Structure formats: C-alpha cells, structure tokens
Amino acid sequence: MSSVFNLSNPNFPTIDHRHHCFPNVKPQFAFARSSIHLSNSRITEVRAQLTDTIPVAAKPISKDEVMKAEKEVIVGTYGRAPLVLTSGKGCKLYDIEGREYLDLTSGIAVNALGHGDPDWVKAVTDQANLLAHVSNIYYSLPQVNLAERLVASSFADRVFFSNSGTEANEAAIKFARKFQRFSHPNKTDPATEFISFSNSFHGRTIGSLALTSKEHYRTPFEPVMPGVTFLNYGDIKAAQELISSGKIAAVFVEPIQGEGGIYSATKDFLQALRVACDKSGSLLVYDEVQCGLGRTGYLWAHEAYGVTPDIMTLAKPLAGGLPIGATLVTEKVNSAINNGDHGSTFAGGPLVCAAAIAVFDKISDPRFLGSVIKKGNYLKEILEEKVGGNSHVKEIRGFGLIVGIELDVSASKLVDACRESGLLILTAGKGDVVRLVPPLIISEDELDRAVEIIYECLHVLDEKVSN
C-alpha cells in the first residue's frame, strides 16, 4: 500500500510562510487516491512513480484530504485538533495552509529548545551521517557521554535508557521490585506494592497505567498491575502510615504534576516521604518526565525542594523531539540489577543520544536556567494582570515555564478560540485547567502576545453551550 503523500519529500510543494501560499513549484511526482483500497494496476503505477520518478502533474494536498486519509489508516486513539502542521521555527508553527501559530504546547513539553534549533539539527545530522543505531549488544560513545552528563548533574550513579516516559516508569517499577527481593533474599514475601497519588499521570503501558490516578484511563484495560494504592497528593499522614506497613516497594510522585493540573508538591510533603521510605526500606521515585530538565528553571524540579529520590524518570524534553526515556538510579538500586533483568532494542541509540547531548548542554547552562525562572515569573505576572480578574479564573499557578490557569468551566472552548486566533495551548486536570508549557527559549514579547490572545478569547467562556 502506498502513502497518500509525503510531506518530507523534497519534491513536495513547500509553503511560503511569508505569503501564506504555495510557491509555483512543479514536483517531480506526487499522487493522491480516492480510496484506501488500490487495484493491482494502480499499485504497479505508484511503485513506478516512486522508483522511476515519473513526472506527473499534482495539486497541493489540502487539510481536509489529510484529515480524511488519517481516519482511514490510523488507529482512532487521538482526539486531534483540526490542524495539519507542516513546519516550525523557534516558537512558531505553520500549518499546511501556511498559517502561523505561536506554540505554547512545545509538543506537550517536549520541544524545550523550540523548533529547528540549529545546534540540535547539526547534532542529529552529523550523527546520522556517522551511525544511527547499533542496539545495546554493543557499546556506543554518545550513550556513554549522555549518561556521564546525567550522572554528573544529579543524585544518580547509573542510568537506564528507554524510549519514552512510560517506559522509564516501567523500568522503575521493575527495578523497585527487584531491589526489594535482592535486599531481602530470605523473605518469602518481599514488598511488591506501590503508592501513587491523586491527579497523577505516569504513562499508558500497563504498569505505568496502574500508577495513573484517572479511572477512565485504566478502566477499559483492567485488570492492570495490582498492588497500587492512591493517596491524596500532599497527604503526609496517610503516606507515612501506609509506607510503614512494610508492603510498599516504592512511592511514585511527581514533584510538579503536569497532566494532573499543574499542582506543586511542598517540601514538607517530599521530606516526609523521604524519611518514611528510609525507615521502611521503600524506594522514593520522582517522575520528572514533564517537569524535569529545566522546565521549572531548575535542572531537576526536585532541586527546588532539596529532597532527593532513589530513582528519577525523565523523557519528554531530553532529546528535543526524538523518542527517549531515562531512569536514573542510585548505586544502591543498581546493585540489585543483573544482566538480562531489563532491556530495549532501540533505547539509547547513537542518534537520539547525540540529540539529547545537544539539548542537555544548552539547558544545563546556569544562564539558560536563570532565564527560564525570569520568564516564568514574568508569565505569571502578566497572566495575573490580564486574566486574573476574570470571573471564570479560579487560580493561576505554576513554577518556571509550567503554568496552569484553573477555570470554573471547561477550558476546551478557550483552547479552540485561541487556536483560531493563532495560539496553541493545552488543557490539564479535569479539562478545566489551561496548561502553558512553551519552549524554554520563548521571548517576553512572545509571552506578551500569548497572554493577549488568551485575554481576547476569554469571552467564549461566557457563551452558553447549545444543546
């Protein structure tokens, strides 16, 4: 089966963003189809076009054609916004029709350096010309160099690489259970259970899903991994009591909850978890998949609290848009892990690690981190000034450049209105929180423009929903 189109094809008409139109470029080949099922003769024709580059006339692909094609070939797990994005630069994105958008989603807190960062592009290009993948049967230098950076800048002694945040948390689950068995070799029933918290999100694979609090994520796939107890985020007394039972292998907690609604832990809460885990032998796991690596203005979100974990999971921004996850552990945890206990074919490959090194080296610069704190404070100030007084705004909260605007109604209409006005934002919590996670390189002028658009669109929250 052939593809409907290929936007990465150099012969595909590119968009002139200055004039919001397609230039007068004649591609060597392009094709469209009216049905998902192709005849044998058509398949032969398409293959000829692909292999022999037969010149044929073609018209630009429209947004509607892309959306229609997606429904025919992609599993329907995503409720997508009606937007086909084709390119980006800095904090700007452009759709297939050439329209410009200010991006305060950064690919769900992934594109920390924005789109098309030149150092990132060079790192990826240079490494792709050398070596992209070898598997973990062999050593590779970029993987070791990235791990050295992560260890040198954190509490950790060792790193396990994976391909996503949920995989990083799956590794943490396995390492925690193996650690308990290793630490109590003569115990017939070592601790195997876990604590997670309200408003938590740890991923969508079965183990990580079991640690995710929202029932509608878990219910369709039950039974998920057993042995998880959800406590209220910040409830010190309940956590201390359950941890002291001796049944808890590990406590999973986000220092700042992203998907859950931009809620920040307190130092007292994290300190209480640390003390209770030390007393019982449980492990403390910080999920910094969304809040880590500079998002708060600290390299690691937990640095603001001065309370370190035994394990930390990372992912989203680490490779600037390429898939990566990382599970950082102390030597105490590492001592329980043997060859064959875990693994991944793709994880920590030379290409993705080279990209991650470029990202890490920029974000870990103290001057860069200082700029994130400054811009985060500025963002909250102008939000309070422009929208804080609106009757629908209950609270503006956040840390650095992970900021939430809690509303007393659903945020979906505001998100839609902002998109129509050229601003991309996200929701969080129960759909009543506007989540702002812009690229960390965003300028104050761009923040001003974003807040102005939000302000101008607030009126949609007053419109009554039609039946």
Classify the beta-strand content into a percent band: 15-25%
Overall body shape: globular
Mean pLDDT: 90
Say how many strands there are: 17
Largest sheet: 7 strands, mixed
Q: Termini, distance in Å?
A: 42 Å
Helix share, percent: 25-40%
Low-confidence sequence ranges: 1-36
Secondary structural class: alpha/beta
Order the strands across the largest sheet as they lie in space.
4-12-11-10-7-5-6
- Determine the number of helices (DSSP H or I, runs of at least 4 residues): 15
* Cα gyration radius (Å): 24 Å
Q: What does the model show?
A:
It is a single chain. The protein has 467 residues and is of the alpha/beta class. It has 15 helices and 17 strands. The strands form four sheets. It has a seven-stranded mixed beta sheet with strand order 4-12-11-10-7-5-6, with helices on both faces. A four-stranded mixed beta sheet has the order 1-2-3-15. It catalyses: N(2)-acetyl-L-ornithine + 2-oxoglutarate = N-acetyl-L-glutamate 5-semialdehyde + L-glutamate. It holds the Pfam family Aminotran_3. Belongs to the class-III pyridoxal-phosphate-dependent aminotransferase family. One of its GO terms (biological process) is L-arginine biosynthetic process.
Summarize it.
Pathway: Amino-acid biosynthesis; L-arginine biosynthesis; N(2)-acetyl-L-ornithine from L-glutamate: step 4/4. This protein has 467 residues and is α/β, with parallel strands linked by helices.
